[in-house]
């Protein structure tokens, strides 16, 4: 399915006070918005994903899966700065006529959500049945549920946090150091920083998986002293990202993740979390190195009425993209329970 684009021709003011003269928002929709406008499932994607959620979250979204376009109106928007359609460092600055590259302004998770809100208005979405995201996507979903608590009915947060940790920031800064070490990063060309991006992706993979994941999937079957499977895997995955992404989007999106702090300007994280009104499910992955499960426990403990469930995955942080059958069981149980509770409350009130 082709990416659709919303062109917002008015000035877009960022949390920092800096502005973009205009923005474009790339997005996908699937299914049909019903007459009651209450069947919207909005997906917030992770760091290097795109808005074609039926492609990258197979097993959970798509025909015959739990979130089926035959029943739901599914929306996913590319995040600001993405390499997949939304205004990014490679887009032309209308003021100069040249691509932004490293003159792109710094922005935050809140700015990403502000762009989502523009798209929701364009699509006529006033109520979101389920808002869902993992990792950076979960950070967006949580921020939106605080900005507009009345709009979100069900909130599903997976492998994410309330404020990005020093551990997570250190991972991201290490990757940015790799980008900076590539002299071509400052060349202001579309493929600038490609070698640094490959190295950065290799670092990131170590936080997405685990010691045991590599021990099983990349174990050598002989007594080689070179050409290890883990070596070829890191190179392959690095090249794969270089072929579909760019160093400048990666640079800015890593900084966006670092900016995540729902308590900023709201009296602290706990006070901010207390304002969430959606029925909330928090899912933590037992083997997650990047977003340790303690972070999800914290969310569930401080969001009113939130439920917490563990996903016991062999694949670490990436488990939410791989173990979709178990994820479906967890999510369907949560949503069915909420639906039953709502029906019961309606019957009692009648």
Q: How many individual domains?
A: 2
Order of helices and strands: EEEEEHEHEHEHHHHHHEHEHH
Low-confidence stretches: 346-350
What is the CATH class of the largest domain? Answer: Alpha Beta
Find the CATH superfamily of the largest domain: Alpha/Beta hydrolase fold, catalytic domain
Structural class: alpha/beta
Mean pLDDT: 95
**What fraction of the residues are assigned to beta strands by DSSP?**
15-25%
Number of strands: 10
Please give the alpha-carbon distance between the first and last residues.
45 Å
- Using only C-alpha atoms, the radius of gyration works out to 20 Å
Please count the helical segments.
12
The spatial strand order of the largest sheet comes to 1-4-6-5-7-8-9-10
- In quaternary terms, these chains amount to single chain
Task: Tell me what the structure shows.
This protein has 350 residues and is α/β, with parallel strands linked by helices. The protein folds into two domains: 4-165 and 261-349, 3-Layer(aba) Sandwich (Rossmann fold), CATH 3.40.50.1820; 168-256, Rna Polymerase Sigma Factor, Chain: A (Orthogonal Bundle). 41% of the residues lie in helices and 15% in strands. An eight-stranded mixed sheet has the order 1-4-6-5-7-8-9-10, sandwiched between helices. Helix 10 (293-302) links the parallel strand 9 and strand 10 (307-311). It is globular. It is an enzyme of class 2 (transferase).
């Amino acid at each position: 399915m082709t990416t659709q684009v919303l062109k917002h021709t008015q000035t877009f003011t960022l949390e920092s006070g800096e502005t973009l003269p205009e923005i474009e928002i790339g997005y996908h929709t699937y299914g049909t918005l019903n007459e009651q406008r209450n069947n919207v499932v909005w997906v917030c994607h992770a760091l290097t994903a795109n808005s074609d959620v039926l492609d990258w979250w197979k097993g959970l979204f798509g025909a015959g899966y739990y979130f089926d376009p035959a029943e739901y109106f599914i929306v996913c928007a590319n995040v600001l700065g993405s390499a997949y359609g939304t205004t990014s460092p490679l887009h032309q600055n209308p003021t100069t006529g040249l691509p932004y590259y490293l003159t792109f302004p710094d922005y935050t998770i809140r700015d990403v959500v502000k762009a989502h809100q523009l798209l929701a208005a364009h699509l006529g979405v006033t109520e979101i049945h389920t808002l869902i995201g993992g990792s950076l996507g979960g950070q967006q979903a949580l921020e939106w549920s605080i900005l507009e608590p009345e709009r979100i009915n069900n909130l599903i947060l997976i492998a994410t946090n309330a404020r990005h940790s020093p551990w997570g920031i250190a991972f991201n800064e290490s990757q940015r150091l790799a980008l900076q070490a590539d002299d071509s990063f400052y060349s202001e060309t579309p493929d600038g920083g490609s070698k640094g991006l490959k190295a950065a992706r290799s670092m990131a993979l170590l936080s997405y998986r685990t010691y045991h994941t590599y021990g099983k999937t990349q174990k050598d079957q002989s007594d080689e002293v070179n050409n290890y499977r883990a070596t070829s895997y890191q190179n392959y995955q690095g090249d794969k990202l270089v072929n579909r992404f760019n160093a400048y989007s990666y640079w800015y999106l890593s900084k966006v993740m670092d900016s995540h702090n729902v308590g900023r300007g709201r009296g602290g994280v706990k006070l901010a979390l207390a304002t969430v009104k959606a029925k909330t499910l928090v899912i933590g992955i037992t083997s997650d190195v990047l977003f340790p499960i303690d972070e999800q426990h914290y969310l569930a403990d401080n969001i009113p009425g939130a439920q917490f469930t563990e996903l016991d995955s062999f694949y670490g942080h990436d488990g939410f993209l791989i173990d979709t059958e178990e994820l479906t069981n967890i999510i369907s149980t949560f949503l069915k329970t909420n639906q039953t509770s709502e029906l019961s409350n309606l019957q009692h009130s009648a």
